[in-house]
Amino acid sequence: MTSGPGAARFGVPLVRLAVAESTNDVARLLASAGTREGAVVLAGRQTRGRGRLGRVWLSPEGGLWCSIVLRPVGQGPPGLLSLAAGLAAAEAIETVSDVHAGLKWPNDVVLDGRKVGGVLIESAAGATIAGFGINVRVPLEGLARDVAETATSLHLMTGRPVDPEAVLEALLKRFAGWYDTWLAGGAGIVGAWSRRDATRGRPLHISISGETLEGTADGIEPDGALRLKDASGRVRRVVSGDLVSSQGMAQGR
Question: What's the whole-model pTM score?
Fold first, then answer.
């Protein structure tokens, strides 16, 4: 991962909102109005947050809900930007909590097999939006049962208060470095992500356009695609899909 002057450009400007429907949507509006790369939208809570495939992303107070406006000059490998963002989130969590963070393809951050955060990359008018959601201290009993059964928080894992502002500061620094690595071609992203791969070797069920694929996770390709090995040993590349279930691992939304 590279680092340096690029780290300082993230978080300027920083737009703080007590409530937002979706920080990604606010960031998209700012991007359409011409805001600079590195602008960050931060909300105390989201009322219509979303994850991949349009899923509802519960975002009450006590989490870090933010989005970054990106205006890449040229472009790194498309499939690696989400992985780079996941690496940044995992490293930020470790910086403030000393708890090892794993990554679950394609965009989840997990602690001890339970989901603590996720990443959503979306295109905007002439820009890209990187959205992050990390459960810092949202009580699980306040979440829907299906979510609470598979989730965790930094507070729960550490047993002590964690400051969302500290998580944000660490996230922006880590993301700046991995973003620059991605812009430079992405060398090192797949290797670093693979060392945190929490799905490799686990049986998976993946839904793609109504078809369900079954197999064992066999790591990721150089372009970020998932390798899924079926019972016959045949390996199939999965570029985009819905991870329906993962035996032996708590599932997130």
Answer: 0.88
